[in-house]
Design brief:
Elements: E1 10-11, H1 17-32, H2 38-68, E2 71-72, H3 82-86, H4 88-105, H5 107-122, H6 128-149, H7 158-169
Parallel strand pairs: 1-2
Length: 170
């Protein structure tokens, strides 16, 4: 029975989408790291374990809301007009674009574009210069750490190819 009769039950069905996808992704991620070095496996299991723990806590909390009648599995709040005003649709589209174009443009360039677009959406277009600099610094740091220093198998694009040629001749 709901504790507050004036307040309708919270629709938690839409809130469960991301944790369910996170659990699925984490399980998939675990299945892909078996042939990785043991240090990468340990790091992956720590990060994935924390994600699974947080999701489990949310699932327990959602279950309690359902049992108490304080929540329903409704998904009416999954997509609303607020999604357009708050930029959630834009963030979804930038995420889809990141996944679709990372193989073509490479890790560094696509990460820069993703970070810049995401932060500009969240900032509603303000501070574009600062956001561009921060995005460039973060993408370059990602390149320096993951591709140049550790030679990971991230997708290579124009930037990575150019930098490899410059560093080889330098």
């Amino acid at each position: 029975m709901p504790s507050d009769h004036h307040k309708p039950p919270r629709q938690i069905g839409g809130e469960l989408v991301i944790p369910i996808l996170a659990v699925g992704f984490t399980i998939y991620f675990f299945s892909t790291i078996w042939n990785s070095p043991w240090t990468a496996q340990v790091s992956a299991f720590i990060v994935g374990g924390i994600l699974l723990l947080v999701c489990a806590i949310f699932f327990v909390r959602a279950g309690i809301w359902l049992v108490r009648g304080e929540g329903t599995l409704g998904v009416g709040n999954l997509f609303t007009m607020d999604d357009i005003h708050t930029g959630r649709i834009g963030l979804l589209l930038t995420t889809i674009a990141y996944v679709m174009f990372i193989d073509t443009l490479g890790f560094t360039l696509m990460t820069f574009l993703f970070l810049a677009a995401s932060m500009l959406i969240l900032a509603k277009g303000k501070n574009a210069g600062f956001i561009t600099m921060i995005s460039a610094a973060m993408a370059l740091t990602g390149w320096a750490v993951f591709i140049w220093a550790f030679d990971t198998r991230f997708p290579r694009g124009w930037f990575e190819t150019t930098m490899k040629a410059i560093l080889a001749n330098g």
